[in-house]
Amino acid sequence: MALQKKLRAILTDEGVLIKSQSHHMFNKHGQLRSGDSLSLLSCLSCLDDGTLSSDGGSFDEDDSLELLPLNTTIPFNRILNAKYVNAGQKGPSNGKMFSDPFQTENLSSSSENDEIENHSLSNDKAPVNEPHLSSSKNRWDTKTSNLKATPDSSPDAPPSLGIKDNQQLIELTFAVPKGHDVIPQKLTLLIDHVSRKPRINASGERIPSGTVEEILEKSYENSRRNRSILVIINPHGGKGTAKTLFLTKARPILIESGCKIEIAYTKYARHAIDIAKDLDISKYDTIACASGDGIPYEVINGLYRRPDRVEAFNKLAVTQLPCGSGNAMSISCHWTNNPSYAALCLVKSIETRIDLMCCSQPSYMNEWPRLSFLSQTYGVIAESDINTEFIRWMGPIRFNLGVAFNIIQGKKYPCEVFVKYAAKSKKELKVHFLENKDRNKGCLTFEPNSDPNSSLDLPSKSNKNNNTKNELSPNFLNEDNFKLKYPMTEPVPSDWEKMDPELTDNLTIFYTGKMPYIAKDTKFFPAALPADGTIDLVITDARIPVTKMTPILLSLDKGSHVLEPEVIHSKILAYKIIPKVESGLFSVDGEKFPLEPLQVEIMPMLCKTLLRNGRYIDTEFESM
């Protein structure tokens, strides 16, 4: 059977559609020979495990044919990379032999046991070097080695491989589920394609877009291609598994996507602060924290302490690859707690600005206030989080046990609280949420880059959803964005409200945050939005009977606890809390803070991060 009949495919609006069967690594169910599920659903937004999409309907359990089903679509959101199989392949515009100018050899790798130290990051980062994807050993038999020139080929011309002018032999790399993860796989296809999307070359001429470039443009629509990533790993994170999780699950996806990676390992407490404070920001566009939530907190605060912090926050996106015990950032932003799926979301996500919160206390406010991306808490939650560190080996259940123990004891944490409200009542909060929930939907559209020597895409100037000042422009932030509106050295403003002492003297939970999830299965702030300019506030009273408090705590996984009449739920701009107890603590992004007055205010759109589909995970708050 001729190659064209066995491996032919076409481009569609959804992806690459297989139009002929081939003996391959798939059985006729679209499963890997090992039996692991392969999801090739032609749904642009779906990144979850699923079954193969096929026009052939359902199949029985006979695996004998091992055929890739007809009309299988490899969706663009699964495609990591594409390249012409031979450098001498005919081009789409004039029939000349050429290599694709958009394919850059920027990948690097090193084995886990062959790490080269780089002294520019305190001697703690290892460049990751990967050989170019066109390896001579293709572990999939694509039946391309025996191709011959057609009879009409001239002896002096490069071999045409029997391929027509509208066909391209292309190696496609895409993500497939295997077990609980996604892994990169390669497939060589003969693609019938007539370019419908011209591009502008360096001379301003309109030329047909190459097949590979068109595939990559559609695969990375709204996303930045070929990222330069500094990965910061806490080797002790995730019960000591963070390094292994990154190298085995996240790194393969990033490498096959064309990302350039350098690795820095933390060696002591707060080391990530020093790494972020001292790194050369010209080398990267992304910092990926392969850790729990502690390293993103440190990175953000390290960037905040730089003399060029404006440039750093304008340029760098800070994201998380979930390799720790607490992965709230990844769950909220990438919609997953799995490192491999998070890596896939990282390369496909939309760059978006999110709000941060600035915390001030007397012991450090004159040095450096602390930035918070996740939450601050006082009372039962803080003690249950920090004071159960000694049983961290138990996993998330340690937190639940701590909360239950303190609730049953009826512990209360008296304090004074002053608040600047944005939406005080639950009705006002719902209105605010509905008005702001779609603010980040499709917030960026990346235009094709006309310079073939550059791997960066430019934000579209025509996007209707952008603010009057482009959020991702190099000059979006200036030093004024870092100035506090309510310095702690000044008296509490007159337009702040003091909360009822009857409530604050009997306070059990005081919790403020900016991301919907604070841990896996704990949707504490279901109305949290990336950049609505507010902080979510949740408060409970120690006088609530245990019989009513129990169902409140049991509904944290659904987020419906905020609907209970006993729970105070508001949107605020700033607050000050003054503890009245002699011993205790605050927890900020999971870090222990001293028991002293704490003042916090919103810092609008200060941090650039990566959000799947440009928004937080859907909490279903709208339908609650």
UniProtKB/TrEMBL annotation:
Enzyme Commission numbers on file: 2.7.1.91
Gene Ontology BP terms: calcium-mediated signaling; sphingosine biosynthetic process
Membrane topology, record value: Peripheral membrane protein
Compartment annotation: Golgi apparatus membrane
Stretches assigned to the DAGKc domain: 224-363
Biased composition (Polar residues): 101-111, 132-148, 447-457
Reactions catalysed, as given in the entry: (4R)-hydroxysphinganine + ATP = (4R)-hydroxysphinganine 1-phosphate + ADP + H(+); sphinganine + ATP = sphinganine 1-phosphate + ADP + H(+); a sphingoid base + ATP = a sphingoid 1-phosphate + ADP + H(+)
Residues of the signal peptide: none
PROSITE patterns: DAGK
Classification via SUPFAM superfamilies: NAD kinase/diacylglycerol kinase-like (SSF111331)
Region of interest called Disordered, as start-end residue ranges on this chain: 90-163, 444-472
Keywords attached to this entry: ATP-binding, Kinase, Lipid metabolism, Lipoprotein, Membrane, Nucleotide-binding, Palmitate, Sphingolipid metabolism, Transferase
MF GO annotations: ATP binding; sphingosine kinase activity
Annotated Low complexity bias: 460-472
Example of a GO cellular component annotation carried by this entry: Golgi membrane
Top-level taxon of origin: Eukaryota
PANTHER family: ACYLGLYCEROL KINASE, MITOCHONDRIAL (PTHR12358:SF31), SPHINGOSINE KINASE (PTHR12358)
Protein name in UniProt: sphingosine kinase
Organism per entry: Saccharomyces paradoxus
